[in-house]
Design a protein that fits this description.
There is one protein chain. By secondary structure, the chain is of the alpha+beta class. It folds into two domains: about 160 residues, no CATH class; about 80 residues, no CATH class. Helix content is about 40%, strand content about 20%. It has eleven helices and 14 strands. The strands form five sheets. Strands 2-1-3 form a three-stranded mixed β-sheet. It is elongated.
């Protein structure tokens, strides 16, 4: 018995513990290798995504067109001014959040893809060129004193609660167009500006927009006014309203907007006519009464991307911010910078 115990202690037990030690050591080695692999993959992913690092966009250069000055401003502070300038503060908070994400995405897209648009600046403060923007002081001055604090807090909430969020398609920030009112149906980008048919800017229907002011407008002009306004673009245009076919819509887009209209001896793109006459959209019909022409217009804006009244309508129906965005932009994701 003594010999057996001696043999067990001296030879067998060390062998067992040594085997276990080697096995545990192998596990730690394997775990360390996995950790190193994950670290390497994380670093590689970080290197591949450097253009989406927040630090690159944390401060931007804003060009003020009226003063011809460039201001360096933090991105989120800039977005307070955009959201408060672009969307009524009375809109639902989920609609305002959608506007904040859309504005942030539009801003990043411009910085990444439009570096030469404004010399020495990233973006300007005009809606006719980039996005509307207003300073906090100017915005507060336009509100009554008893609502200033609550209104500004709502703007800050919309931006802060969407901090760093952007809209992407195939991992890239989208060109996030938006407009006031779609008239119930948005337009695809290629029907407005031609060129590439962007898959995320397709026509979608939205209910509830007819309840907003600006949904329906009317413009009446005389034959001479119409001719005069078109002369600068079409100098050879002639109009004879005695002919019933003298003004006639000849082509529509898939959303029901006018693509081309025949005016006298000239085929005019509806986008050109809208610009010349100041029509609120290309979603219109035409009525000729003697020497006058009436355009009955539905919607407000180019119709591409998110409709702001549509976003508010969806929010009131219970849609959250991400549902609103994915309604208007096809096949997109919402990601953090």
């Amino acid at each position: 018995m003594y010999i057996l115990v001696f043999t067990l202690v001296i030879f067998i037990l060390p062998a067992i513990f040594t085997k276990k030690s080697i096995t545990v050591s192998n596990l730690f080695d394997k775990k360390e290798n996995q950790d190193n692999t994950q670290i390497a993959q994380t670093q590689e992913n970080s290197d591949n995504s450097t253009k989406y690092e927040y630090t690159r966009f944390a401060t931007l250069k804003l060009y003020h067109q009226d003063s011809n000055q460039i201001e360096e401003i933090p991105l989120e502070q800039y977005l307070y001014g955009v959201v408060s300038a672009e969307m009524p503060v009375s809109y639902h908070i989920e609609a305002l959040k959608a506007q904040a994400i859309v504005a942030r995405t539009y801003t990043l897209y411009q910085i990444i893809n439009s570096s030469n648009k404004h010399e020495n600046a990233d973006i300007c403060d005009k809606s006719t060129c980039c996005q509307a923007w207003i300073s906090k002081d100017d915005r507060l001055a336009k509100w009554s004193e008893d609502e200033r604090q609550s209104n500004w807090s709502k703007i800050e909430q919309a931006v802060n609660e969407t901090y760093g969020k952007i809209i992407t398609y195939n991992g890239e920030p989208i060109d996030a167009f938006f407009h006031a009112n779609s008239g119930g149906k948005t337009e695809s980008a290629s029907n407005v500006w031609g060129g590439e048919n962007l898959p995320y800017l397709q026509s979608v229907e939205t209910s509830g927009e007819d309840g907003y002011s600006g949904y329906s407008t009317e413009l009446t002009v005389s034959k001479d006014e119409l001719k005069e306004k078109l002369k600068s673009t079409y100098p050879d245009i002639e109009i004879n309203l005695q002919n019933e076919e003298e003004i006639k819509i000849t082509e529509y887009t898939e959303s029901g907007r006018v693509r081309t209209i025949k005016i006298g001896n000239t085929n005019v793109p509806a986008t050109k006519l809208r610009s010349c006459l100041g029509l609120r959209s290309t979603f219109f019909n035409v009525v000729v009464n003697g020497e006058s022409i009436t355009f009955n217009v539905t919607g407000y804006g180019h119709g591409v991307g998110m409709s702001q009244t549509g976003a508010d309508s969806l929010a009131k129906q219970g849609y959250g911010v991400e549902d609103i965005i994915k309604h208007f932009y096809t096949g997109v994701e919402i990601e953090l910078i």
